[in-house]
Amino acid sequence: MLPTAQYTAFIKRRAAELGFMYCGISKAEFLEEEAPRLENWLNRNAHGKMAYMANHFDKRLDPRLLVDGAKSVVSLLLNYYPAEEDQQSNEPDTLKISKYAYGRDYHFVIKDKLKTLLADIQQEVGEVGGRVFVDSAPVMDKVWAKKSGLGWVGKSSNLIRPGTGSFFFIAELILDLDLEYDGPIKDYCGTCTKCVDACPTGAITEPYVVDGSKCISYFTIELKDQIPQEVAGKFGNWVFGCDICQDVCPWNRFAQTHNEPQFQAHPQFKHLRATDWQEITHELFTELFRQSAVKRTGYAGLQRNILFVTQTADAEASAGREAAESEG
């Protein structure tokens, strides 16, 4: 077996042992097709107030600017889909957060696994230069995952894998090591537009194009200002992130429960009702979300989101009662 094939097989085997669902590899090179798409997206201000999205434009498009002598991008998927009994209910008195934030912050979980994988590669191969990336550096993770055959980028802009769906995290190792490369797969969205039709804020402006500044996740996590009134009543019960486009995707009927203990939610979490959320104290917030991604919005930010959603719901209920009384 050639060294490249041997090293490739080792990396994929070790990734599976560390709990990653899938591992694909692509050549580290300039993303020529993505350059005009990224530039147009930024020029339309689709990143809203996420100023960091406009930073390091060249590095986003060329991994060789992130790792000297980079030759391979190793893309990995880690499942976070919770068991049905652990998911929040769809009852109107339940406020909801995205499934990815139920347990421990994925940045910590995945970085630990990636550092172990990189150390194991260096022990197996010898001197290998590389860096690990989890959603916090200028790396176009979905593009690299697509290039390495892990799925296709769907109309919702989520990476979708046949027979698996889209409830997974994407991470990368960029290495100065020659490996065997995988190729992309075809797009299986077909004529389906369920994600486009279901988005309550119209963030999916057209198939395959998402205006990030209109997304519920943007408003509830990224936006630090007050949420604009023009989107009042469009959030449903979402107070941190949103899973609507994934929940309606037919491919997610194949989603399997994750087996990562660190992604288990706090036992008290799924029993919270709207009144509990409204009365949440700083102490309870810290206990429930001690190492959760929810800490990103902070206690004050979560309070803002809860107030925005519940006040809108109360106003709509009051208007409904008044309308019924006037008809009566």
TrEMBL record:
GO cellular component: cytoplasm
Cofactor(s) needed: cob(II)alamin; [4Fe-4S] cluster
Coiled-coil annotated residue ranges, if any: none
Residues holding tRNA: 224
Binding-site residues, [4Fe-4S] cluster 1: 189, 192, 195, 249
Binding site for cob(II)alamin: 60, 135, 159, 170, 217, 242-243
Subcellular location: Cytoplasm
Record key words, sorted: 4Fe-4S, Cobalamin, Cobalt, Cytoplasm, Iron, Iron-sulfur, Metal-binding, Oxidoreductase, Queuosine biosynthesis, tRNA processing
GO process annotations (BP): tRNA queuosine(34) biosynthetic process
Active site residues of this protein: 135
One Pfam family cited in the UniProt record for this chain: QueG_DUF1730
Recorded GO MF terms: 4 iron, 4 sulfur cluster binding; cobalamin binding; epoxyqueuosine reductase activity; metal ion binding
Classification via PROSITE patterns: 4FE4S_FER_1, 4FE4S_FER_2
Domain 4Fe-4S ferredoxin-type: 177-209
Gene3D superfamilies linked: 3.30.70.20
Pathway: tRNA modification; tRNA-queuosine biosynthesis
Family per similarity comment: Belongs to the QueG family.
Function field: Catalyzes the conversion of epoxyqueuosine (oQ) to queuosine (Q), which is a hypermodified base found in the wobble positions of tRNA(Asp), tRNA(Asn), tRNA(His) and tRNA(Tyr).
NCBIfam families in the record: tRNA epoxyqueuosine(34) reductase QueG
PANTHER family: EPOXYQUEUOSINE REDUCTASE
Subunit field text: Monomer.
Protein name: Epoxyqueuosine reductase
Organism this protein belongs to: Hymenobacter aerilatus
Protein's gene: queG
